[in-house]
Amino acid sequence: MATYTMTPFFNFKRKFVNKAVLTLATVISILGMALPFWILFTVIQRGFGSFNWALITQITPPPMAEGGLLNAIVGSFLMVGLAMVIAAPIGIFTGVYLAEYGRESKLASLIRFVNDVLLSAPSIVIGLFVYIIMVVPMHHFSGYAGVVALAIIAVPVMVRTTENMLLLVPDVMREGSLALGSSKRQAILRICLPAAKNGIITGILLALARISGETAPLLFTALNSPYYSTDLSQPIANLPNTIFQFAMSADDGWISLAWAGAALISLYVVIINLVARLVFARNTTGK
Questions:
Q1: How far, in Å, are 2, 187, 284, 286 from residue 191 at the CA level?
Q2: By three-state DSSP, how is residue 216 classified?
Q3: Would 87 disulfide with which of 129, 151, 250, 257, CB 3.0-4.6 Å?
Q4: Per residue in 127-153, pLDDT tens?
Q5: Which class would CATH give 74-239?
């Protein structure tokens, strides 16, 4: 029987490589964490100076004038809210089907494949798709087209989250419910969904945060408007496109408003993500 012993040189080399890889991984991790904080700090630092009462009470101004972002905030709120109303039922029901009924069926595998494609598709491609199917036939941009584009982006996030959260529910809970005489539908409604509800709520919040800052799909669908309007059948003001338009201008007032809008969206997304993590932490601790 052959025996192997580590020479001092081999032992030194192993420890050196181990420490080198550990140090490199630590440095890269720190850089990865520092970059988002740097971006967030820069956006808030540049935008906080323009935070005032006029920002949320006045509409977007013409060049060389003062104003706020009221019409853009209202437009974004309407489109994101309606998109979530459409996407939430579709995402949750599809996730329930995949986790509770489809599982290993061919249809479920096809749905998962399509969902993964949508999840990784660039948002500008989705915007272009909605432009072809809605804007071109209607002959004008509209808030409804923007709603559909945002809903398509939100659905795959919620499908994946809902399925994963339901799969975390132990099968013994389903079997116990069925053994007591419950139907499969009752087991899902009374046992599985309540057990996974915090995770599903987390998915809704993450999808909400994802679509709140989308710009590319709205360029092809809702476009933008300098006026205050809640009519989604016409082009409507929204924060992402307003930020893009103002940031590209040479007007210092518009540029300041662009930074303020960027800071507003950043803070909103950070808060939504923090709430989602708190909800998920509550789910994992069982409180």
A1: 58, 5, 16, 14
A2: helix
A3: 151
A4: 999 999 999 999 999 999 999 999 999
A5: mainly alpha
